[in-house]
């Protein structure tokens, strides 16, 4: 049986020098239990079979430009479908800033960004 070695999200963010832009109430006690990460391109397109919200979600240029390409109403719908599943945390890379509506939804669903 695999043993779990959880890591506190805030410790990981400090170690990696990440800027936290949404820090829900439970942020300091949030634990990462799995080492795998996910690029949620398929989820943003609507496919959630096998989605594991315990994984860190990594948003890169592909995911961000895909969202920007959608009409606003559809973009918000896709982001809400994703964030309503409450992933353990979302990390934006390449210096990409989350969309304002993404941050508002992350705050609503208590998802650290």
Return Rg in Å.
14 Å
Strand order of the largest sheet: 3-4-5
* Beta-strand content estimate: 5-15%
Distance between the termini: 32 Å
Number of strands: 5
If you had to describe this structure to a student in words, what would you say it looks like?
The protein has helices at 9-15, 41-44, 61-69, 72-83, 100-109, and strands at 7-8, 31-32, 37-38, 56-59, 90-92. It has 113 residues and is α/β, with parallel strands linked by helices. The protein has a 3-stranded parallel sheet. Strands 1-2 form a two-stranded antiparallel ribbon. The chain is globular and about 40 Å long.
List key phrases describing it.
113 residues, two-stranded antiparallel ribbon, three-stranded parallel beta sheet
């Amino acid at each position: 049986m695999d043993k779990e070695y959880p890591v506190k999200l805030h410790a990981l963010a400090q170690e990696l020098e990440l800027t936290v832009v949404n820090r829900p109430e439970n942020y300091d006690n949030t634990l990462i239990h799995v080492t795998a990460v996910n690029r949620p391109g398929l989820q943003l397109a609507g496919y959630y079979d096998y989605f594991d919200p315990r994984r860190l979600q990594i948003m890169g240029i592909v995911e961000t430009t895909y969202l920007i390409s959608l009409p606003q109403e559809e973009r918000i719908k896709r982001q809400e479908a994703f964030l309503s599943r409450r992933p353990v945390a979302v990390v934006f890379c390449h210096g990409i800033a989350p969309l304002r509506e993404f941050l508002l939804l992350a705050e609503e669903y208590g998802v650290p960004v």
